[in-house]
Amino acid sequence: MQENHPVLPHVLSVNLEDQHSALLAGDIATNLISALSRIEMACAAILLVTIPFQWFFIDLSDPSVKLSAFLRSGLFPGGGGHS
Questions:
Q1: Could you identify which of 8, 19, 21, 63 might form a hypothetical disulfide with 1, taking C-beta atoms 3.0 to 4.6 angstroms apart as the criterion?
Q2: CA–CA separation, 40 vs 47, rounded Å?
Q3: Average pLDDT of the residues of the chain
Q4: CA distance 37 to 17
């Protein structure tokens, strides 16, 4: 990116020692993280709806299946460790 000298007129109108590429990289990373956060929230919403239904469809007589169902149900609320 440094050799392209990108210009971000909406962010900065003067070149502060070739810092435009760093600003562009930060803008790209922010947009990617924002998009991934929306996907994460959609997946969490789907899991919130589907985790309770697992109890009706799985074989609870198998102890390992029962343990994994308890783990999935118990760990879901603590899985979103960021703000």
A1: 21
A2: 11
A3: 78
A4: 33
Q: In this model, does residue 14 exceed pLDDT 60?
A: no
**Residue indicated by tokens 């879901």:** 76
Helices (H), 1-83: 20-57, 63-75
Q: Retrieve residue 32's tokens.
A: 């990617």
Angle at 65 between CA 44 and CA 46, to 5 degrees: 15
Give the residue carrying structure tokens 């309770």: 52
Structure tokens at 83: 């703000």
Can you tell me the distance from the alpha carbon of 21 to that of 12, in angstroms, rounded to the nearest whole number?
11
